[in-house]
Automatic annotation (TrEMBL):
Key words of the record: Hydrolase, Metal-binding, Nuclease, Nucleus
A Pfam family assignment: DDE_Tnp_4
Cofactor: a divalent metal cation
Taxonomic placement: Eukaryota, Metazoa, Ecdysozoa, Arthropoda, Hexapoda
Name of the protein in question: DDE Tnp4 domain-containing protein
GO cellular component: nucleus
C-alpha cells in the first residue's frame, strides 16, 4: 500500500477509530491504531512481536486489531465489493473475452483453506482432509484479479460445491436476482443465445450458469480444447488468491484468534485487496504462487442436461470460429 493510499484509508476510518484523551492518559492515536493493524495483516506478526515493536499491551493490541478490522470492513465493503449492476456484468464479460478469450464469462470461482489454530471446544468441525484446522474462503473474481463476491467462515471439513450452493450468491443466481444480462449468441454463425456463466473446477456442478471442465482421461480433442480454454479463464481466481496471500502475509501462518475474528480478518484483507489492487496495482510474481492457502476438496454434483448442452456450444465455438492459433500445441 502506498503512503497516499494509507492516508486515504486513514481519512475514511479516522472518525470511527479515534479515542478521546482523559485526565489519566493520552489515547492511542487513530493513525497508530491503523499502523498496528496493517502491520499485523501484512507481516503476519504475532501480538507478542507487536507488543515489543509498538510498546503496547498485548490485550490492547488485540482490542485494536478487532476494532480496526471491523471498521475497515464496514467502510470499504460497499466501496470495494459492491453488488454489480447489469453494466458491470457486461464490462466483466468483455474483459474476460479480451484477456482470457472466453466469451460470456462473468467470473471465476474457487475456494481455499485458511489455516487457523484449533478453536476451543470445536471438535473436528474445522479439521480438513489435509489434516490441519482451517476455515474456507470461497471467492468469485473478475479478469482484473479483484473479488466480486466472497463467502467466509465455512468449516474446514466442507467442500467447495456445498459452500457455494448454500451461499446467498448462489440463491440469488438461481433466482435471477443479480441483474445478469440476458443470454446472447457467442458465434456469428450459431444464433443460439448462450447465458452468461461463471467458470469453476470439477468441484462445481455443471449448470446453465456454471461451467466446469469435462471429466475423464480419454477425452476428444474438442473436449481437451474446451478444458484448456476454461482453465485460461479460471486461472484468474488462482492468481487473485496468490496476490492476496503474498500481499497480506497473515495467511502465511495459522491464525491464532477466535473464529469470529478470523472471519473479520479475512473479509478485511479481501476488501483491502480490492482497494489496493485498483489503486496501486500488483506484482506479477505474486500471481505465481499461493503460500498459506490450500485447495478445498471436490464434492460431487451431477451436470444438468441444459448445462451440458451449453457447454457443448462453447466447445464447438472454441474449435471453429473462436479457435486460437496456439491452442492445439497447448493440449499436446
Amino acid at each position: 500500500m502506498s503512503k497516499i493510499e494509507f492516508d486515504n484509508v486513514y481519512s475514511l476510518i479516522n472518525a470511527k477509530i479515534s479515542k478521546k484523551n482523559t485526565n489519566f492518559r493520552e489515547a492511542i492515536s487513530a493513525r497508530e491504531r491503523l499502523l498496528v493493524t496493517l502491520r499485523f495483516l501484512t507481516a503476519g506478526d504475532s501480538y507478542t512481536n507487536l507488543h515489543y515493536s509498538y510498546r503496547l499491551g498485548i490485550s490492547t493490541i488485540a482490542e485494536i486489531i478487532r476494532e480496526v478490522c471491523h471498521f475497515i470492513w464496514v467502510v470499504l465493503k460497499d466501496m470495494c465489493l459492491p453488488q454489480p449492476t447489469k453494466e458491470n456484468w457486461l464490462k466483466i464479460a468483455k474483459d474476460f473475452h479480451l484477456r482470457a478469450n472466453f466469451p460470456n464469462c462473468i467470473g471465476a470461482v474457487d475456494g481455499k483453506h485458511v489455516r487457523i489454530i484449533k478453536p476451543y471446544n470445536s471438535g473436528s468441525l474445522c479439521y480438513n482432509y489435509k489434516h490441519f484446522f482451517s476455515v474456507i474462503l470461497l471467492a468469485i473474481c473478475d479478469s482484473d484479479y479483484k473479488f466480486i463476491y466472497i463467502d467466509v467462515g465455512s468449516y474446514g471439513k466442507d467442500c467447495d460445491s456445498t459452500i457455494f450452493t448454500n451461499s446467498t450468491f448462489y440463491q440469488k443466481l438461481m433466482n435471477n436476482d443479480l441483474q445478469i444480462p440476458e443470454p446472447k449468441p457467442i458465434s456469428s454463425t450459431n444464433p443460439i443465445p448462450v447465458p452468461f456463466v461463471i467458470v469453476g473446477d470439477e468441484a462445481f456442478g455443471q449448470t446453465d450458469k456454471i461451467m466446469r471442465p469435462f471429466g475423464g482421461s480419454n477425452l476428444t480433442t474438442k473436449k481437451k480444447i474446451f478444458n484448456y480454454r476454461l482453465s485460461r479463464a479460471r486461472r484468474h481466481i488462482e492468481c487473485s488468491f496468490g496476490i492476496l496471500a503474498n500481499k497480506w502475509q497473515i495467511f502465511h501462518r495459522p491464525i491464532n484468534v477466535n473464529l469470529d475474528l478470523v472471519s473479520c480478518i479475512i473479509k478485511t484483507c479481501c476488501a483491502l485487496h480490492n482497494y489496493v489492487r485498483e489503486r496501486d496495482g500488483y506484482k506479477f510474481e505474486d500471481t505465481l504462487s499461493i503460500p498459506g492457502f490450500e485447495e478445498v476438496p471436490n464434492g460431487f454434483q451431477r451436470a444438468t442436461r441444459r448445462g451440458a448442452s451449453y457447454r457443448d456450444v462453447f466447445a464447438d465455438y472454441f474449435t471453429t470460429e473462436g479457435q486460437l492459433s496456439w491452442q492445439m500445441s497447448s493440449i499436446n
